[in-house]
Amino acid sequence: MTTLVVTKRMAEHPADSHTITRYQATGGYQQAKRALGMTRDELVEEVKASGLLGRGGAAFSAGLKWSFLAPERPSYLVVNADESEPGTFKDRQLLERDPHQLIEGLIITAIANEAHHAFIYVRGEYSKPARRVQKAVDEAYAAGFLGTGIFGSDFDLDVVVHLGAGAYICGEETALINSLEGLRGEPRLKPPYFPAAKGLYMKPTIVNNVETLSNLPHILALGSAGYTALSSSADTGTFMMSLSGHVRKPGNYEVPHGITWRELIFDIGGGMRRDRALKTWIPGGASAPWFVPEKHLDLEITKDATAEAGSMLGSGAVIVMDEDTCVVRAAERIVRFFAHESCGQCTPCREGTSWLEMILRRIDEGRGRAVDLDLMLDLGDGISIGLEWPPRMTTICPLGPSAVSPILALRDYFRSEVSRHLEAGGCPFPGGHIAGEEEEEEE
């Protein structure tokens, strides 16, 4: 039985889990008060010892990131709620149904990093989550948990909820910072612009994801030892996964690290719809290289196991595709997304993603050539040198290499299917559906 952590309150009190009344009645804000009595070093070391990894995609140690904060002040805290990775919808649930949990995590992080100004950057399309978070912020101000002298202490903390303009690239932390400053949402070079040293307004800045911060009250409540005990694997705590596609029970699931993909897809997700066979799945959002059942179904869901298999857990978005899925069409949809969302700053990404999209489209439409797969691999090599994972990028951020991930799947697992498209003069699958696009209703 999975121990729920960040989704426990919404599971037990679905009607009012988003209110400050319910949050306080279930122990809310007690750990933020406690954090005020702790030093920066104590808080950083506790989070380090918990093993908490960032839940936004990079899976970097949260405590280690905090320890990198440069000594210059003022410092800033930015909450990355720009959840734009295709297939990802976990942060939306946390924003809508337990925003005070996020705010308490934000307070703890601000105290640990000596930040007196924090910004919650919400995806442009998330109007309801943004309203819920803004109301929660207003309630926290009214209760004295934010503003001047929080909880009666001498620590001041102001929070601004900022709604983005709907750009995928602003999920990258330096592009997000540019956007907050009123600039174009374009990534900055690292080095020198590591946010912990030169972030918002060129001051030290910590950028953390919604789910990451939502874990912090529980880490302080349980202690680092109690938190690590939640999982039997090297990756500690629980992990929210957004399961979608051709499964019987799609949705958000909070699971312990270390279960297998078979358990997630077949036991938790209910197996494949209409009893079709599993063909492939994307383990960590559209950016991640794909997995196939013959090689990966019994692999443990951990950072290291996934990385050793050539992919990543990323944002926790799992997109499942069945045996009748046209992988060429699925790859084209994903590449089209990245081509559209490229900020255009880097030539390999700006030009390469558009060419990849055009080649995939002509294969799908029956105009493909025998050289097209090799041509796409050559283009991909210009974006991600060596076509390896993690990528050796020719771009400032990973968006360009993300568009190469579907091409690698076609090369490694579905080359014969590409050939069938070329031989048949188009898609050989009846209907040629992709995840979520079938016309027929679920039985």
Q: Strand-and-helix sequence, N→C?
A: HHHHHEHHEHEHEHEEHEHHEHHHEEHH
Task: List the uncertain runs.
Answer: 439-443
Number of strands: 10
Structural class: alpha/beta
Instruction: Name the CATH class of the largest domain.
Output: Alpha Beta
Q: Level of helix content?
A: 40-55%
As laid out across the biggest beta sheet, the strand order is: 3-2-1-4
What's the rounded overall pLDDT mean? Answer: 94
What general form does the structure show? globular
CATH architecture of the largest domain: 3-Layer(aba) Sandwich
The tally of structural domains comes to 3
- What is the helix tally? 18
Q: What is the CATH fold-level name of the largest domain?
A: Rossmann fold
Question: Beta-sheet strand percentage?
Answer: 5-15%
Query: Mind summarizing the main beta sheet?
Result: 4 strands, parallel
Q: Alpha-carbon distance between the termini?
A: 29 Å
Tell me about this structure.
The structure is a single chain. This protein is an alpha/beta fold. The chain has three domains: 221 residues, NADH-ubiquinone oxidoreductase 51kDa subunit (Rossmann fold), CATH 3.40.50; 85 residues, Ubiquitin-like (UB roll) (Roll), CATH 3.10.20; 98 residues, de novo design (two linked rop proteins) (Up-down Bundle). Helices cover 42% and strands 12% of the residues. The protein is built from 18 helices and ten strands. Strands 3-2-1-4 form a four-stranded parallel β-sheet, sandwiched between helices. Helix 6 packs parallel to helix 8, helix 14 runs antiparallel to helix 17 and helix 15 packs antiparallel against helix 16. The radius of gyration is 22 Å and the shape is globular. The two termini are 29 Å apart. The relative contact order is 0.11. The C terminus is likely disordered.
